[in-house]
Amino acid sequence: MNKSENRIQQECYNWFWNNHPNYRKLLFAVPNGGARSSQEGRLLKLTGVVAGVSDLLLMINGTTYCFELKNFYGKQSKAQKEWQSIVEKNGFQYFIIRSKEVFSSIVDKLIIEEERKQNGK
């Protein structure tokens, strides 16, 4: 229950890699956090880094899903809430994930749904 967000993300990514080999590399991390110097932060902004972007993105069948990883006590920052609002207004699904079990359940359902769409069922 008291795992770090980094540990939860590792577990989710490893589960996905091992359980959905056909979709490997379509789930990826956005290295948006961490301490940086002001110069490095400025350079990242100039090259397109956007504050608040979710931790993991999953792209399947022309659809992108956003996953923000939080531990049991974690709360979204203002920038994360703003980004969630923007992506949801633009038709993307955004999930706050607090465990590998929740992540795996959601992802399995999304993949089944996307495969049905792709196969016209």
Describe the structure.
- The chain is an alpha+beta fold and 121 residues long.
- The protein has one domain: Trna Endonuclease, Chain: A, domain 1, CATH 3.40.1350.
- It is built from 4 helices and 4 strands, in the order H-E-H-E-E-H-E-H.
- The chain has a 4-stranded mixed beta sheet with strand order 1-2-3-4.
- Helix 3 (78-89) links the parallel strand 3 (63-69) and strand 4.
- Helix 1 (5-19) packs parallel to helix 4 (100-118).
- The chain is globular, with a radius of gyration of 15 Å.
- The mean pLDDT is 91.
Relevant terms:
single chain, 121 residues, alpha+beta, Trna Endonuclease, Chain: A, domain 1, 45% helix
Strand order of the largest sheet: 1-2-3-4
Beta-strand segment tally: 4
What level of helicity do the residues show? Answer: 40-55%
Distance between the termini: 39 Å
Can you describe this structure in just a few lines?
The chain is α+β, with helices and mostly antiparallel strands and 121 residues long. The protein contains four helices and four strands; from the N terminus they run αβαββαβα.
